[in-house]
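Entry 14. Two folds queued back to back today. First construct below, sequence then structure tokens.
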Amino acid sequence: MQKSTTLKGLLAVSAVVAMFSTAGVQAQTQPSVAQKDAAGQTGSNAKLSAGDEKAVKDMAQANINEIAAAKIALNKAKSSDVKAFAQKMIDDHGAALTKVQTVAEQKGVTLPTEPDAMHKAMAANLEKQSGDAFDKMYMENAGTKDHQMVLSKLQSDAKMIKDPDVKALADAHTPVVEQHLKSAQQMSEDK
């Protein structure tokens, strides 16, 4: 019961963080577009630097990978807490992917559409598992390791991003990924 209450509390905090992050992205991107339009430029068609384009593609890939793994977890997880975590990943990463797709479309960036090779292999391994073994593998890989990797990449990319719309995306994604990582780590500790 305590574990379930703790998870619900963490998920509620995640939802609030995601809500405020969304408002921050909207607040940050609107003036940027308005300023470009006022200057007579079509900022939404501005070509991104190679680094900014890679950052957009990386954000999309991370979201696609998380959604794919979470869909497997919804079907195979034994624990209701793991299923709740998976649903949160689908909801949050689905919303984040939509925002990335919008910016990518404005900037003329073609995004990946399926999990990368490493995550396809992870999905194949997850499919072979069941019960507690599945829950453990999903939470260790998609829950903790992936979020650690994505957070590190977001933080390093954010220092190099030049485009204000891409920067706003990275800045908005970071606290959500941090919260997902904390939730995954908390669930692992409760086991």
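Second construct, same run, same settings:
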Amino acid sequence: MHGGALASWLLMALCAVSGAYCLLRTRTGTPQERRTARGEALMGFGMAAMAVPAAVLTPPEGTWAVYGAVFGAAALRALWAARHGSHHLHHLVGSLAMVYMAVTMAPGAAGAGGHAGHGAAAGGAGGVPLLTGVLLAYYALYVLRSAGHLIPEGTGIASFAGGGTEGLARSGGGGVGGGGTELTMACRLTMGIAMFAMLLTL
């Protein structure tokens, strides 16, 4: 990414830790919560792999096609699951964003500029500016709203962002043991920030 290898390592670590926590959540909760946790774990580990600095690991030919196929399938699954709850739409947007970034970073893509670690050495801007801008706006709003859920209820900021404990309950957060709801939301917030940062480097 444009911020250098240190920023790429930080992104990778944050996404990997978030993915690992989501993986732990697959062991508890309702079947629906476990399915959600599996999807979020896939997203976290996928983003961590994308953020590995190119100087450390150059992805083999065909890697981006695999990313596109995996997250394309995840997008279809989220679209099907969205019939039972609107919160799956966020997973749909995330999966489509991953497909978009994989296509943009693929060798030979028009104007491929890359992002995170693997695109650090490439020059120029990649992707479709309008689509990138829409995704950036979505994740900016998502991050602000998620942060609002973690702010104590009764404050002006929490009210503005739709936060507080009631908002947390509506967000469908589940977790491992006590305080899991807050940890789950913090995990989703972290991945939202990471996605925003990765989109910025396209």
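Quick look at the second one. Confidence is low (pLDDT under 50) at residues 119-124, 164-179. The chain has eight helices and no strands.
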